[in-house]
Design goal:
- The protein contains 7 helices and no strands.
- It has 144 residues and is an all-alpha fold.
- The mean pLDDT is 96.
Length: 144
């Protein structure tokens, strides 16, 4: 059975971003896997965006407890994956700065006011440095 909206100025065939909260909630309540997948795709692209926020609230309000649990787990996974990707991006940028500086990792760590082991955790993407540390790292790399 195809998803139908009532009292919503959108059509289920429209982009998910135009559905609004009621459309997202309707998809969770009365939609099927194809409808859920469309919403989840938008959430995965922008896990803290407007649709993701609507999805989060709808997950708590849906009449279908299974759909709500799935939605909450899916949102958490999308956000975790985004955070992991961001950590990898910061680690890649920092590795480029170390290479650009021409210093060894130990020397770079000293010049940026951290320990070699802490720098190693940044480069491995296990933790993220502060914004101030990234500014300092850019300055050290540019000075070389």
């Amino acid at each position: 059975m195809a998803l139908k909206f009532r009292n919503i100025d959108a059509n289920p065939s429209d982009p998910v971003e135009t559905w609004g909260f009621e459309g997202v909630l309707t998809a969770l309540d009365r939609g099927d896997l194809a409808d859920w997948s469309r919403v989840l795709h938008v959430v995965e692209v922008d896990p803290w965006g407007e649709v993701a926020q609507q999805f989060e609230i709808a997950a708590k309000q849906t009449e279908d407890r299974g759909a709500g649990a799935w939605a909450q787990l899916s949102l958490a996974r999308a956000r975790d994956e985004a955070k992991d990707a961001e950590r990898r991006q910061v680690a890649h940028e920092l590795a480029s700065l170390v290479a650009k500086s021409g210093l060894t990792a130990t020397e770079f760590a000293k010049r940026t006011g951290t320990s070699a082991s802490r720098l190693s955790t940044y480069l491995a993407g296990k933790t993220c440095p502060s914004a101030a540390y990234m500014v300092r790292s850019r300055r050290v790399a540019a000075a070389r």
